[in-house]
Write the structure tokens for this entry.
Amino acid sequence: MFSKSSPPLHMKLQMLTFILVFSIFHISHSTQLNYTSIFSFGDSLADTGNALIHSKSNPVFGRLPYGMTYFMHPTGRCSDGRLIVDFLASAFGLPFLPPYLAHGQNIRQGVNFAVVGATALDPAFFQGLLADGAFPFTNLSLSTQLRWFEELKPSLCNTTTACAGYFSKSLFLVGEIGGNDYNYFFLLGGKSLEEVKSYVPKVVGAIVAASERLIKNGAVNLLVPGNLPFGCSSVYLTVFNSPNKEEYDPTTGCLKWLNAFAKYHDALLRRALDELRRKYPRARIMYADYYGASIQIGRSPQRFGSGEEGFDLTPGLGTDESFHSWGKA
Ligand SMILES: *[C@@H]1O[C@H](CO)[C@@H](O)[C@H](O)[C@H]1NC(C)=O
Ligand SMILES: *[C@@H]1O[C@H](CO)[C@@H](O)[C@H](O)[C@H]1NC(C)=O
Ligand SMILES: *[C@@H]1O[C@H](CO)[C@@H](O)[C@H](O)[C@H]1NC(C)=O
């Protein structure tokens, strides 16, 4: 059942987006909050243009078919349509978030700091751990994105009281982030499962530390997504292709050991978020189950319009194409 010809990327993303927004909406409805701004951090799953603005080359996501179905031109989104963060903004009646690097935009209703290829860990962490000449696609990691936010903060609010009032109605989307850390270790570093597993507490620690730093800056409402099922990504299915049928989940065609790894990250993240909730009982810390939402597509692709073809997700990476184009560089 695992696919040879997969549906177009935009279809997959739209299906995923639909399910995710549906689930997230469920959360937001139950809490009766009407957010008046959104601040977003993360990687290609959320970038609305930062990497493209920052890029000196001509990345694939700056060319058609990216942007084709909705914006009618490339926007720097790693999709031909909208991203989860776009649907979230629309759901709250907010405009699409301008990318932070566009500068000079109206940011009262939010801004997007996410960057394609970004990691949760600082770039220095990867030094000496990746293959010769391989390095993260971008240095604009989570801590850089947080610094951008802190630099921007005075233009949004200047006193603790003003910030508390303003941010009490803001949603902070912290991720998805961390997927690229694992992509770099597995795909550019050739690391074993055991070694990559030993980095999971560090990656989770970086995500939770970022969330805590945002809370200390006044954030109250945080939505922290987990990872996508790596074992369903076409890059991973190709690189870790196995003749042993036992390695594949018969209901999805995905690699079981990689999906177990994604679940391991998610379990550690959820546990760490529980601790954070205990430490900051007044913060509303929500977990977004990207894995659970997307694996539904794998289980019954027909229900989501992808026929018999199965599905494909590349966590944290723009697309397989963009991965290959820089993965080989
Ligand atoms: C949310 O707030 C916006 C802007 O203040 C308003 O237009 C909209 O009606 C509100 N929605 C709900 C469901 O309260
Ligand atoms: C990231 O920073 C390192 C060290 O300063 C530099 O060598 C590298 O070229 C940078 N990478 C990118 C993609 O900017
Ligand atoms: C905060 O203070 C700075 C410097 O005085 C000013 O430029 C900025 O507009 C102020 N921000 C707000 C939200 O009032």
